[in-house]
Amino acid sequence: MRSPATNCVFCVLIANFAIASEKADFFPQLRTYLEIRVDEFDQIKDERKVELRKIALYVQNRAKEKQPVRLTFICTHNSRRSHMSQIWAATAASFYGIEGIETFSGGTEATAFNPRATAALKRSGLKVVKSEDGKNPHYEVRFQGAGNEMVCYSKVFNEAPNPKDDFCAVMVCSQADKSCPVVDGCSLRIAIPFDDPKIADDKPEEETTYDERTRQICREMLFLFSQVNN
Protein backbone atom coordinates (compact mmCIF):
# COMPACT_ATOMS: atom_id res chain seq x y z
CA MET A 1 0.00 0.00 0.00
CA ARG A 2 1.35 3.44 -0.98
CA SER A 3 2.12 6.06 1.66
CA PRO A 4 0.27 9.44 1.39
CA ALA A 5 3.43 11.04 -0.02
CA THR A 6 3.84 8.29 -2.59
CA ASN A 7 0.18 8.57 -3.52
CA CYS A 8 0.63 12.32 -4.02
CA VAL A 9 3.59 11.84 -6.36
CA PHE A 10 1.81 9.01 -8.16
CA CYS A 11 -1.27 11.20 -8.72
CA VAL A 12 0.87 14.04 -10.08
CA LEU A 13 2.56 11.68 -12.54
CA ILE A 14 -0.79 10.33 -13.71
CA ALA A 15 -2.18 13.86 -14.03
CA ASN A 16 0.84 15.06 -15.99
CA PHE A 17 0.59 12.06 -18.30
CA ALA A 18 -3.11 12.69 -18.87
CA ILE A 19 -2.51 16.37 -19.67
CA ALA A 20 0.39 15.62 -22.03
CA SER A 21 -1.53 12.86 -23.76
CA GLU A 22 -4.60 15.03 -24.21
CA LYS A 23 -2.52 17.83 -25.74
CA ALA A 24 -1.55 15.58 -28.61
CA ASP A 25 -4.50 15.55 -31.00
CA PHE A 26 -4.15 11.91 -32.03
CA PHE A 27 -6.48 10.40 -34.59
CA PRO A 28 -9.25 8.60 -32.58
CA GLN A 29 -8.52 5.11 -33.91
CA LEU A 30 -4.82 5.60 -33.25
CA ARG A 31 -5.38 6.87 -29.68
CA THR A 32 -7.36 3.72 -28.88
CA TYR A 33 -4.62 1.60 -30.46
CA LEU A 34 -1.95 3.29 -28.32
CA GLU A 35 -3.94 2.92 -25.10
CA ILE A 36 -4.33 -0.82 -25.77
CA ARG A 37 -0.59 -1.18 -26.35
CA VAL A 38 0.14 0.54 -23.01
CA ASP A 39 -1.97 -2.13 -21.30
CA GLU A 40 0.30 -4.78 -22.86
CA PHE A 41 3.60 -3.75 -21.23
CA ASP A 42 3.61 -7.04 -19.31
CA GLN A 43 4.12 -8.82 -22.66
CA ILE A 44 7.59 -7.28 -23.02
CA LYS A 45 10.35 -9.62 -21.88
CA ASP A 46 12.45 -8.44 -18.95
CA GLU A 47 15.70 -8.56 -20.93
CA ARG A 48 14.22 -6.25 -23.56
CA LYS A 49 12.98 -3.86 -20.88
CA VAL A 50 16.58 -3.58 -19.67
CA GLU A 51 17.75 -2.42 -23.11
CA LEU A 52 14.76 -0.12 -23.60
CA ARG A 53 15.47 1.52 -20.23
CA LYS A 54 19.05 2.21 -21.39
CA ILE A 55 17.65 4.21 -24.30
CA ALA A 56 15.21 5.96 -21.94
CA LEU A 57 18.10 6.93 -19.67
CA TYR A 58 19.99 8.29 -22.69
CA VAL A 59 16.96 10.40 -23.63
CA GLN A 60 16.56 11.61 -20.05
CA ASN A 61 20.23 12.53 -19.61
CA ARG A 62 20.46 14.32 -22.94
CA ALA A 63 17.34 16.32 -22.16
CA LYS A 64 18.70 17.30 -18.74
CA GLU A 65 21.92 18.49 -20.36
CA LYS A 66 19.87 20.41 -22.95
CA GLN A 67 21.54 18.39 -25.70
CA PRO A 68 19.88 17.18 -28.91
CA VAL A 69 18.07 13.86 -28.54
CA ARG A 70 18.44 11.98 -31.81
CA LEU A 71 17.50 8.33 -32.24
CA THR A 72 18.43 6.52 -35.46
CA PHE A 73 16.85 3.10 -35.95
CA ILE A 74 18.96 0.85 -38.18
CA CYS A 75 18.20 -2.39 -39.99
CA THR A 76 19.57 -3.95 -43.17
CA HIS A 77 17.35 -2.54 -45.93
CA ASN A 78 15.46 0.29 -44.19
CA SER A 79 12.28 -1.21 -45.53
CA ARG A 80 10.22 -2.42 -42.56
CA ARG A 81 11.37 -2.58 -38.93
CA SER A 82 13.54 0.54 -38.89
CA HIS A 83 10.75 2.66 -40.39
CA MET A 84 8.20 1.21 -37.97
CA SER A 85 10.53 1.95 -35.06
CA GLN A 86 11.19 5.52 -36.17
CA ILE A 87 7.49 6.24 -36.60
CA TRP A 88 6.36 4.59 -33.36
CA ALA A 89 9.17 6.27 -31.38
CA ALA A 90 8.06 9.71 -32.55
CA THR A 91 4.43 8.83 -31.81
CA ALA A 92 5.27 7.46 -28.35
CA ALA A 93 7.31 10.55 -27.44
CA SER A 94 4.33 12.73 -28.31
CA PHE A 95 1.96 10.40 -26.44
CA TYR A 96 3.96 10.94 -23.25
CA GLY A 97 4.48 14.65 -23.88
CA ILE A 98 8.26 14.35 -24.23
CA GLU A 99 9.51 17.16 -26.44
CA GLY A 100 12.70 17.64 -28.43
CA ILE A 101 12.92 14.07 -29.72
CA GLU A 102 14.16 13.56 -33.29
CA THR A 103 13.75 10.11 -34.81
CA PHE A 104 15.42 8.75 -37.93
CA SER A 105 15.84 5.45 -39.71
CA GLY A 106 18.30 3.93 -42.15
CA GLY A 107 19.79 0.72 -43.42
CA THR A 108 23.18 -0.72 -44.14
CA GLU A 109 21.83 -0.39 -47.69
CA ALA A 110 18.82 1.37 -49.22
CA THR A 111 15.90 -0.36 -50.94
CA ALA A 112 12.32 0.91 -50.45
CA PHE A 113 9.77 1.31 -47.66
CA ASN A 114 7.81 -1.91 -48.12
CA PRO A 115 4.09 -1.44 -48.92
CA ARG A 116 3.15 -4.32 -46.59
CA ALA A 117 4.66 -2.33 -43.72
CA THR A 118 2.89 0.88 -44.72
CA ALA A 119 -0.40 -1.05 -44.92
CA ALA A 120 0.09 -2.39 -41.38
CA LEU A 121 0.79 1.13 -40.10
CA LYS A 122 -2.39 2.37 -41.78
CA ARG A 123 -4.40 -0.38 -40.08
CA SER A 124 -3.15 0.87 -36.71
CA GLY A 125 -4.72 4.30 -37.31
CA LEU A 126 -1.73 6.26 -38.64
CA LYS A 127 -2.22 8.34 -41.78
CA VAL A 128 0.20 7.15 -44.46
CA VAL A 129 0.15 8.81 -47.87
CA LYS A 130 2.52 8.19 -50.76
CA SER A 131 3.91 11.58 -51.79
CA GLU A 132 6.46 10.52 -54.39
CA ASP A 133 6.50 7.47 -56.70
CA GLY A 134 9.46 5.58 -58.07
CA LYS A 135 11.65 2.66 -57.05
CA ASN A 136 12.12 4.26 -53.64
CA PRO A 137 8.83 6.07 -53.01
CA HIS A 138 8.39 8.71 -50.32
CA TYR A 139 5.57 8.54 -47.78
CA GLU A 140 4.15 11.20 -45.48
CA VAL A 141 3.20 9.68 -42.13
CA ARG A 142 1.12 11.49 -39.50
CA PHE A 143 -0.20 10.56 -36.05
CA GLN A 144 -2.13 13.82 -35.68
CA GLY A 145 -3.26 16.82 -37.75
CA ALA A 146 -1.48 18.46 -40.66
CA GLY A 147 1.91 20.05 -40.09
CA ASN A 148 3.47 17.09 -38.28
CA GLU A 149 4.33 14.86 -41.23
CA MET A 150 7.27 12.48 -41.14
CA VAL A 151 8.71 11.98 -44.63
CA CYS A 152 9.78 8.35 -44.83
CA TYR A 153 11.79 6.63 -47.56
CA SER A 154 14.64 4.15 -47.66
CA LYS A 155 18.18 5.44 -47.12
CA VAL A 156 21.54 4.38 -45.72
CA PHE A 157 21.79 5.13 -42.00
CA ASN A 158 24.50 7.79 -42.38
CA GLU A 159 22.86 9.49 -45.35
CA ALA A 160 21.15 12.90 -44.98
CA PRO A 161 18.84 13.86 -43.38
CA ASN A 162 20.07 11.35 -40.78
CA PRO A 163 22.61 12.71 -38.29
CA LYS A 164 26.27 11.78 -38.77
CA ASP A 165 27.30 12.29 -35.15
CA ASP A 166 25.97 12.69 -31.62
CA PHE A 167 23.01 10.28 -31.88
CA CYS A 168 21.84 6.99 -30.41
CA ALA A 169 22.09 4.11 -32.89
CA VAL A 170 19.35 1.55 -32.24
CA MET A 171 19.92 -1.71 -34.11
CA VAL A 172 16.54 -3.29 -34.82
CA CYS A 173 17.61 -6.33 -36.82
CA SER A 174 20.14 -9.02 -35.94
CA GLN A 175 21.77 -8.97 -39.38
CA ALA A 176 22.51 -5.23 -39.19
CA ASP A 177 23.67 -5.70 -35.61
CA LYS A 178 26.26 -8.28 -36.76
CA SER A 179 27.31 -6.55 -39.99
CA CYS A 180 27.63 -3.11 -38.39
CA PRO A 181 29.25 -3.66 -34.97
CA VAL A 182 30.54 -0.08 -34.94
CA VAL A 183 28.36 2.88 -35.93
CA ASP A 184 30.58 5.88 -36.61
CA GLY A 185 29.54 9.07 -34.89
CA CYS A 186 27.01 7.61 -32.47
CA SER A 187 27.20 8.42 -28.76
CA LEU A 188 25.37 5.20 -27.80
CA ARG A 189 24.71 1.94 -29.64
CA ILE A 190 21.93 -0.38 -28.45
CA ALA A 191 20.59 -3.57 -30.06
CA ILE A 192 16.89 -4.45 -29.74
CA PRO A 193 16.35 -6.73 -32.76
CA PHE A 194 12.81 -7.52 -33.92
CA ASP A 195 11.85 -10.57 -35.99
CA ASP A 196 11.45 -9.68 -39.66
CA PRO A 197 7.81 -9.81 -40.83
CA LYS A 198 9.19 -10.43 -44.33
CA ILE A 199 9.13 -14.17 -43.54
CA ALA A 200 5.35 -14.07 -44.08
CA ASP A 201 5.37 -12.22 -47.42
CA ASP A 202 2.86 -13.69 -49.90
CA LYS A 203 1.66 -16.24 -47.35
CA PRO A 204 -1.82 -16.55 -45.79
CA GLU A 205 -0.46 -15.21 -42.48
CA GLU A 206 1.14 -12.11 -44.08
CA GLU A 207 -1.26 -9.49 -42.71
CA THR A 208 -1.38 -11.10 -39.25
CA THR A 209 2.42 -11.20 -39.04
CA TYR A 210 2.85 -7.56 -40.04
CA ASP A 211 0.15 -6.48 -37.59
CA GLU A 212 1.83 -8.46 -34.82
CA ARG A 213 5.19 -6.82 -35.52
CA THR A 214 3.82 -3.29 -35.61
CA ARG A 215 2.00 -3.94 -32.33
CA GLN A 216 5.23 -5.17 -30.73
CA ILE A 217 7.29 -2.23 -31.94
CA CYS A 218 4.61 0.27 -30.90
CA ARG A 219 4.32 -1.37 -27.48
CA GLU A 220 8.07 -1.27 -26.88
CA MET A 221 8.49 2.33 -28.04
CA LEU A 222 5.66 3.35 -25.70
CA PHE A 223 7.34 1.49 -22.84
CA LEU A 224 10.66 3.21 -23.65
CA PHE A 225 9.16 6.70 -23.40
CA SER A 226 7.06 5.79 -20.37
CA GLN A 227 10.40 5.27 -18.58
CA VAL A 228 11.98 8.62 -19.48
CA ASN A 229 10.58 10.57 -16.54
CA ASN A 230 10.53 7.67 -14.06
What is this structure's SSE topology?
Elements: H1 4-23, H2 28-38, H3 46-64, E1 69-75, H4 81-95, E2 101-107, H5 115-124, E3 127-132, E4 138-142, E5 150-152, E6 167-171, H6 174-179, E7 186-191, H7 206-226
Parallel strand pairs: 1-2, 1-6, 6-7
Antiparallel strand pairs: 3-4, 4-5
Task: Give an overview in words.
The chain is of the alpha/beta class and 230 residues long. The chain has a single domain (25-226), classed as Rossmann fold, CATH 3.40.50.2300. Helix content is 44%, strand content 17%. It contains 7 helices and 7 strands; from the N terminus they run H-H-H-E-H-E-H-E-E-E-E-H-E-H. The protein has helices at 4-23, 28-38, 46-64, 81-95, 115-124, 174-179, 206-226; strands at residues 69-75, 101-107, 127-132, 138-142, 150-152, 167-171, 186-191. The protein has a 4-stranded parallel sheet with strand order 2-1-6-7. A 3-stranded antiparallel sheet has the order 3-4-5, with helices on one face. Helix 6 links the parallel strand 6 (167-171) and strand 7. The longest helix has 21 residues, at 206-226. The protein is globular, with a radius of gyration of 17 Å. Residues 1-23 have low confidence and may be disordered.
